[in-house]
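Appendix B. Raw example, untouched.
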Amino acid sequence: MNNMETVGPPPPYDDKRSGAEGDRSLEMEEGDFRIAYWVEKNVRQAFIRKVYSIITLQLLLTVAIVAVFTFVTPVNTFVINHIPIYYASYGVFLICYLVLVFCQKIQRRFPWNIILMTIFTLSLGFMTGTIASMHETKAVILAMIITTVITITVTVFSFQTKVDLTTWTGFFCILAIVLLVTSITTTIVLVYKYIYWVHMLYSTICAIIFTLFLAYDTQLLLGNKRFSISPEDYVYGAIQIYVDVIYIFLSFLRLGSRR
């Protein structure tokens, strides 16, 4: 699996040793294993701190863009009258996302990974801001509050639960297929005729699926489950969770808006 590593049990000890020499060898092996464990734990903790620091900066930048697009009237009017801004930002976001996810060499090469991730964050922020500018201010604020509560709750759950979601890869592949088919079908239906309940159903499905993906991607960061993201792939880990949070916000924004 790309960007993932399997966390296996420690190697078995050789029980054929005997006497003082065997005891000393066993103690050395146990000591080496404890050192390796603590080194790995420290590396993983530093990795998690780095990922969440990046996500925090991404979300703060996105909130600032959304606030400008929502509360500054000239900007709001300009964006509504120039819809191509949305399509341009979405195209840039999609290209950067695909490059960062599938090109590990760029993903791990400084400063290109930081430059691409910055462009990726700005483009997704502009896309989110463009969508927010087309909805009521109350709906934007409510969606932000709900997203914040859900993100914190899911993160705490993912850290505390004993359920290993990283082994449910097949289930999440099915969810991705369901999301793709639902998106295509909904787009076709709404292009020809706007149907309120179809719009609401699609938004609900998106909110549920991306909430589950948030829990899955969070557990991949922890390193204490069957599969985990390599500590070298902090960019990959950050953009996955960032995308999950943004799409949860957009789903609830559609649900809470009357426009």
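End of appendix B.
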